[in-house]
Fold:
Amino acid sequence: MSTVNDQITDSVNQVNTLLMGSAPVQSMGMLNVAATETIGMSMFNAISTQQNAQTSASAAVAASCAKMLQQSPPMPEKKQAPDEKADLSQIEALVQELLKQHTDAKDNPQS
Structure:
């Protein structure tokens, strides 16, 4: 029969006790590290997605502005030659109508 020194047996028991006592702490530490890494990657993905969306929106605005700038402006109206006479009958009719409305409003004030 072989006998083991009591100091060796005590040392092995202390190491086992130490390992059993530190296992929950180590597992919680690893869980916290994994959770921190996951949250960090989630934030990175959210920021990356937001930047990509902003880039796409800026590109769409730039493309729309470029299309608007490429459109030709409307042709200006033909100006009346200085020797042609303007048709004043429509202007006179409008002035007469406004004067009549003004006179009617003055004679019949609303309460």
About this structure: The mean pLDDT is 83. The chain has two helices and no strands. Residues 6-70 form the longest helix (65 residues). Residues 36 and 43 are 11 Å apart (CA to CA).
